[in-house]
Amino acid sequence: MSTTSESLPRRTWRRYRSIPIIYRIAVAFVLGTAVGGLVGERAGVLEPLGDLFLRLLEMLIVPLIVFTLLGGMRKLTPSRLGKVGGLTVALYAVTTTIAAAIGLAVANLFDPGTAVEFVGGEAQEAEPPTVAEVVLGIVPENPLAAMVDGDILSTIFFVVVFGLALSMVREATTDETVADAIDGFFAFVDAGTEALFKIVWGVMEYGVIGVFALMAASIGTEGLGAIVQLGALVAVIAVGIVIHMSVTYLGVMTVGILGESPLSFLAGAKDAMVTAFTIRSSSGTLPVTIADADENLRIDESVYGFGLPLGATINMDGAAIRQAVTAVFAANLVGVTLGLGEQVLVLATVILISIGTAGVPGAGLIMLSVILTALGLPLEIVGFVAGVDPILGRIATTNNVTGDLAVASVVGKWTDGIDLSSGVWADVPDEPAGEGGGEGVAAGD
């Protein structure tokens, strides 16, 4: 084989990787949607390729939480942990409350559901968690079992406690053997984190194929009929989410607090946003969200290592808007007007159940069944709106992930844990890593 023919595949691969991965994934999304619409149910044969992408992301969730949290704990004194943790949780609570209020506002303004024929459907009842159940559920009976089961809140709790204990022992010990052992352990954590980031971007390279397969199979089997029929519901929820992202995240948080361009923030968060829209899972997107925070937004690990895994579980702003609008939609379907008391109940219920709701596809339907039960509305409505759950889940999850990064950026600003002179914030972006710029997410920006 000649030298010229041997170099052609390499040149082609280099040119391919020189295209920012976000654009490659976007093209895969569009092509997959087109193929699914043209081929129909036969596109379902591609589903295993998409499922492999989801599994690869799920494989990374718990290891990334453990390593990034432990790495963050090394940089946190107990007092700083209290400040970072307190600010993060407070901001999540505030933004979720604002999101639910926006959802109710746009729902009352546009009044979706008044002209839609209710055809019924099947649903499964779900009981709302009590405050005691939420609090007790955070503390794991068996930390290893919590990690194996993917119990994110319990895993976060144990890793934070363990990491903080290591930091306190390191700070107080006079035994050099103990100090060296802890330093060695944290060095191992740092190495493991770097290795995991390498795996993340390898998975994202495959994600071009995975996203194509997911969209082709999804559109091919589910079609667009339900989206057309329930277009009003989708449109109102989309309006609420656009308002929340534009005003709360980009306006108040990015411009007002960070003092930066919203375009810079979007450039740093776009990889996670596209991934969230594709796979409909805040938890599944977590590896990409963490990488965006670290490489693009330049947030310190002591901030994002705590805030992002927590946000993937409890920060459900998009779900709050979605459930608030759907509650009004459901009431209109059956001719019931929600008074002020019922709407306050919706607001409180959304905030409470968002804490214990898994950041995975389909969780929104369980949230909706809880709200309908609280309002005394027929649960069959869950089955009616399930047809548009894929698109509602996508836009809600995109909002959730964007909110996680916005909160982490603000907390970083308030705790000196973000570098606003580099990454996407800089006038001249850093050189992308890797040959041809394909290694880093922001390659070519």
Automatic annotation (TrEMBL):
Keywords: Cell membrane, Membrane, Symport, Transmembrane, Transmembrane helix, Transport. GO terms for biological process: carboxylic acid transport. It is found in: Cell membrane. It comes from the Archaea. Pfam families: SDF (PF00375). It comes from Natronobacterium haloterrestre. The chain crosses the membrane at residues 21-40, 52-72, 84-110, 152-169, 199-220, 226-252, 324-353, 365-388. This is Na+/H+-dicarboxylate symporter. Gene3D superfamilies: Sodium:dicarboxylate symporter (1.10.3860.10). It is a multi-pass membrane protein. GO terms for molecular function: symporter activity. GO terms for cellular component: plasma membrane. SUPFAM superfamilies: Proton glutamate symport protein. InterPro entries: Na-dicarboxylate_symporter, Na-dicarboxylate_symporter_CS, Na:dicarbo_symporter_sf.
